[in-house]
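Encode chain A's predicted structure.
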Amino acid sequence: MAGDKTFAEMVDEVELAFGQRTDIATIAGEIVNDAYLRITCSNEIFGQRTNSYFPSLEMRSSGLNTSDGQAHITVPTDCLFIRHVWDSTNDVKLTKISLADYIQRTGRATASAEGKPQQWVRRSSEATGYDYVFLYPTPDAAYTIYIYYRARPAKLTGTSKTVIGMEWDEAIVTLACAITAQRLKDYEAVKMYKDEFSDIVTGLVGLYDNEDLDKMDYRKVDDTYINFKY
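Encoded structure for chain A:
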């Protein structure tokens, strides 16, 4: 799944919407990427709930091997948020706990308390600043862990296209126009583009929920009962 319009084409559309002004040309690329990241990484834009499920952004990390006595594994750099952590060696899904719960766990640095990981929490390391998944108990051996996560898409450049599908191209361009108008303090144009964006997104949010329709049990009313207004 990929977009239809290239990054360059979307930038051209934004520039054209504002009369190809030279001052807009210098920031149009930045604004298109801003719009793209807002749509894929925000729950709300301009007061409208826009969070959507993007299948192409649902990722699984490569197998991450634990080490005896090392409490953490590294989170993928493009990870927006983690959905699940799975220990493939022991074929078990780990349970997420809060940082407060993790801190209260005893024996995290004691070799005799190590074992098969059962729980996880995400936090950074004070020593390196990297983003980690900390495991409890601290692993006592090498286990292969997979992180299932929602990815943050890479910024667009040149002829690259979005990873979320061509159905979102118009929304990205329209949102970019709204952001541009906002920077120009052209509030009439802001309202026009916001309304247009709202109409587009209303039709797209939840689009992929249709894949769940085959799980629904539909029952047709027997014709015998129709005349009785059932």
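Residues 57-151 form one domain.
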